[in-house]
Amino acid sequence: MKTYTERYAETLTQKLEPSLSKEAIISLIEVPKHRGHGDLAFPCFQLAKEWKRSPQAIAKTLAVQLNDPLFTSFQAAGPYINAFLNREVVAQETLTEILQKEEDYGAHDFGEGQVIVLDLSSPNIAKPFSMGHLRSTVIGNAIAQLAEKCGFETVRLNYIGDWGTQFGKLIAAYKRWGNEEAVKRAPIAELFKLYTRFHTEAVQLPELEDEGRYWFKELEAGNEEALSLWRWFREESIQAFNAIYSLLGVRFDSLNGEAFYNDKMEPVVTELQEKDLLEESDGARVVRLEASIPPALIKKKDGATLYVTRDLASALYRKQHYHFDYSFYVAGNEQTLHFNQLIQVLKKMGYCWAETMEHIPFGMILKEGKKMSTRQGKVVFLEQVLADIIQQAVQNIREKNPELLDQERVAEQVGVGAVIYHDLKHHRQNDVEFSYDDMLRFEGNTGPYLQYTHARALSILRKSKLSKPVYKEGATVTDQMWELITQLTYFPGHIADAFEWRDPSLLAKSIYKIAQCFNHYYAHTRILVGGDQEQKIALTKATAIVIKEGLRLLGIQAPEEM
Ligand code: ARG
């Protein structure tokens, strides 16, 4: 369905073409800050330049000429023409559409026939699943869901950090101090313990570093003992990661990590050489880029390949394998230079599809204003964070709704939803202050507040006798109803915006606003008594549908009761 902005633009276009095109008019239309100024406003400044008349005079003349049954009036206010939508018509159209389409409401088709691959999460084995990886996981997943809602086909790739010199150190550490049972019990924590112990003891015992190097060489050479330890560490860690993913409700289409590209880098180096792009610099091999970007290091002096070498191989493989139209990398701000170099090198190689690769960066998670560090002792394990928050959610639920069945399951949905929403409500590039209290509040801009609003709407629907309400014309559209309906009409546009800006926070804001308007409406209206029963129930149901779908797109479940 067309948006009301588009429909206002169409009415204006009839009078304004050829001076302004429909597209130009759409981009000029605003939503007035105050309701008294109508629902949509068109500023006449641009026309004033064209027509060499004052914008005020133009607004005055045009306002009386416009005529469209979708609007009850057009009023000139200074240089603006304010349009007032016909509330009954909009209520009828919007609610009918939502009740018919249900969770398909807000879908777009502009992505149809196109594939987006997303590189998300990508934690490193032997290091804990960091808060940064949590951000990559939930932001990446939400962008993938938004892309699907816009018609794209998506492929979620988890580029696990499962290769590198850290495995030599880990094997060395395990051989000295390791214990099979301990690793099996808590793989992520135990491997991390071994890894940090290696680093602490290496200060006193420099030969440890040699052992680490030795084992990494063995690993690269295919030594069976080294390989089987590596395989085992990898398996155990992936199982532990999977427990986190299943709690977060995120799935992947591929777990091809860094190791998968071991045999795919040499062909890239050869290709770079053949294309005459490799230069020598202090014995290392580099690709020189534009002056503003430092050269990309492809091979070290000792022949070792680098992060960018591997990502070149993975980009080429992904293009061949998935034929993507877009390729997104959801990774922290600090990797901006890396992805810049990656894209530039591919362009120099003659791959113009490198233009369709995008780094989607995000801010850090802070604790009391400081970066949550992975340095020894200060590490926060995500499993622990999730377990703690679910525990607190259980307590909250017991206090609020002791009768509730299935408390454990609901607490999991609420706790996980709280963590995800807390992350996604911030503009992606901003840093996020980590706070359990802020996540779990039932009031204000939190996941539980949205889930609670949804559950409240469902409880009203359960009490009503109308199982399939239909919105019939003739109801009085009160101001509170109108605010809510207006927000519901914005939802499809906000989905497209959130996708275009690769920013789930735009969707989070949209559902938060809807929930606020619904609670305001609920506070002023006795939904289950008095006139216009069916319309009020229809509005309640439409609201529940939209909040649930909005939460789903963010990766958050909406319990029916809580
Ligand atoms: N494993 C990397 C890290 O933790 C993130 C990988 C991002 N993806 C990529 N293709 N480089 O920093």
What small ligands are held by the chains?
arginine
| Widest sheet: strand ordering | 5-4-9-10
In helices, the fraction of residues equals 55-70%
Shape: globular
Give the C-alpha Rg: 28 Å
Q: Tally of extended strands?
A: 13
Largest sheet: 4 strands, parallel
Query: For the record, what CATH class of the domain at 383-554 applies?
Result: Mainly Alpha
Residue ranges: pLDDT <50 for 5 or more in a row? none
CATH topology (level 3) name of the domain at 383-554: Isoleucyl-tRNA Synthetase, Domain 1
Structural class: alpha/beta
Overall pLDDT metric? 93
CATH architecture assignment of the domain at 383-554: Orthogonal Bundle
Strand content: 5-15%
C-alpha end-to-end distance = 34 Å
CATH superfamily of the domain at 383-554: Isoleucyl-tRNA Synthetase, Domain 1
Total of helices: 21
Explain briefly what this protein structure is.
The chain is an alpha/beta fold.
Explain this structure to me?
- The chain has 562 residues and is of the alpha/beta class.
- Among the domains are: 4-85, 2-Layer Sandwich (Gyrase A, domain 2); 383-554, Isoleucyl-tRNA Synthetase, Domain 1.
- It is built from 21 helices and 13 strands.
- The protein is globular.
- The two termini are 34 Å apart.
- The protein binds arginine (ARG).
- Residues 119, 122, 124, 159, 161, 311, 314, 329, 331 line the site of arginine (ARG).
- The site of arginine has 9 residues, from helix 13.
